[in-house]
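Section 3.1: Structural characterization of target chains.
Under the original work plan, the team committed to producing a structural model for every single-chain target entering the pipeline before any wet-lab resources were allocated. The record below documents one such target. The sequence was received from the expression subgroup and is listed exactly as submitted; it comprises 250 residues.
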Amino acid sequence: MANPKSYDVAGPIGAPAILFLHGMRVTREMWKPQMLRLADAYRVIALDLPGHGALRDQRFSLDDSVAEIAEVIERQANGRALIVGLSLGGYIAMEFGARHAQKAAGLVIASATVEPRGWHTAPYRLLAALMEKAPATWLDFISRTFFRIVYPGEKGEPLIAPGFFMRGGSEGLREIFGKEFSPRLAAFPGPVLILNGSFDLAFRMHERKFFAAAQHGRLEIIPKAFHLSSIDQPDAFSDAVRRFAESIPW
């Protein structure tokens, strides 16, 4: 059973629902800018994935992530939601859409259009190993310092304040390595928005392949945004999600 402390809900009861899936080692708090901007018209939900945040004591797996999402959608979204996933969350969104198409009004896939297999995964395999082996206090310090430099002031607080979950992040990376996700996206029959930051070149490597795989896809690039485009350009990201939500058949 989904833990009520592992997700946040805002917006009008009965309104169309948007559910947000965070990236590796961070938490649902990263979606605060979007929750604030979209709760006027939508039932917005952000949850922690296994191994992260309130679910830190669970091991991460795709199966458990998909089950957690399905249960929260049943509880809080009347069985159907637009799924927005960034980075690790984007891969989980594709997995969810392939397995539970009837529960997904659409998919927004952000910063997740590179297949996690092949030579280009070498740096991320090293990162997974570091997150698993290196002292957590050292890794937390590096992440905290990096985000404070890149996102000074309040902008970085949704990433920094909850802390970092290295074991869950490492398990998340290892779970998706070696898999191919464009076929999972192709299996989803509903509308898809691929939403990438203009400077997120590593994760745009197979952008066209994913766009071609989507049965009813559109592609939008957020100017002056890197991997965490929802934090880099929160207004542009939220506006893109709103336009997509307004366009889909609920």
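The chain has eleven helices and seven strands.
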